[in-house]
Amino acid sequence: MDTTILLMYGLVFFILVLIAWNIKNELRLRAFLKGKNAKSLESIVLETLEEVATLKDHDREIIKHIQTIDSRLLKTIRNTEVLRFNPFAEQGSNQSFAIALVNDEGDGVIISSLYSRDHVSVFAKPIKNGVSTYELSKEEIEVLEKSLSSTKQKK
Questions:
Q1: How far is the C-alpha of 80 from the C-alpha of 111, rounded, in Å?
Q2: What is the pLDDT of residues 44-83, one digit of tens each?
Q3: Which of 83, 85, 121, 87 is closest to 101 using CA atoms?
Q4: How confident is the model at residue 150 (pLDDT cuts 50, 70, 90)?
Q5: Non-local CB neighbours of 96 within 8 Å, separated by 6+ positions
Q6: Which of 11, 114, 119, 120 shows the smallest number of beta carbons within 10 Å?
Q7: How far is Cα 79 from Cα 75, in angstroms, rounded to an integer?
Q8: Which of these ranges, 38-42, 60-64, 98-102, has the smallest mean pLDDT?
Q9: Band (152; pLDDT cuts 50, 70, 90)
Q10: Where are the alpha helices (DSSP H) in the chain?
């Protein structure tokens, strides 16, 4: 008979724990749905899902736009180097210069100027894939190499 009473007390205790747990869950559910009903909660979930889908579409558009900008950016001149020099040591000063204007693909132009007392000459030499079809002076080669090395460092 002692075991039966112990079983009864154990069962009553277990039932009380289940009732307390059920009351706790009921209170949590009421707090969650406070001022709302199941239909409004469902509509909120559906609205949220629609907003998430809209955000995903917007994200795809942004990624496509960024890829377009990146591809255009490769063609912009971002690597410039300037070198001033004196080609005629016996006269003048460092009034001559060479400028390399090159994009990330190695395309661009070298503009150079030779200054002397009686005249100034300006030259423009196109660059394609880091190479010019025209002969380059040592100063032009130097600015081109510096410009191309800064291109490689960015990648």
A1: 11
A2: 888 999 999 999 999 999 999 999 998 888 888 888 999 9
A3: 83
A4: confident
A5: 84, 85, 86, 87, 112, 113, 114, 115, 139
A6: 119
A7: 11
A8: 38-42
A9: low
A10: 2-32, 38-73, 138-154
Q: Sign of dihedral through CA atoms 123, 127, 130, 133?
A: negative
Can you tell me which residue has the tokens 């291109």?
151
- How far apart, in whole angstroms, are the C-alpha atoms of residue 155 and residue 150? 9
Could you say which DSSP state residue 131 is in?
A: B
**pTM of the full predicted structure?**
0.59
Amino acid sitting at position 124 = A
The helix (run of H) or strand (run of E) holding residue 111 is: strand 108-115
Q: What is the DSSP letter of 130?
A: T
- Cα separation of 40 and 51, whole Å? 16
DSSP state of 104: T
Going edge to edge, which strands form the sheet with 108-115? 77-85, 96-103, 108-115, 120-127
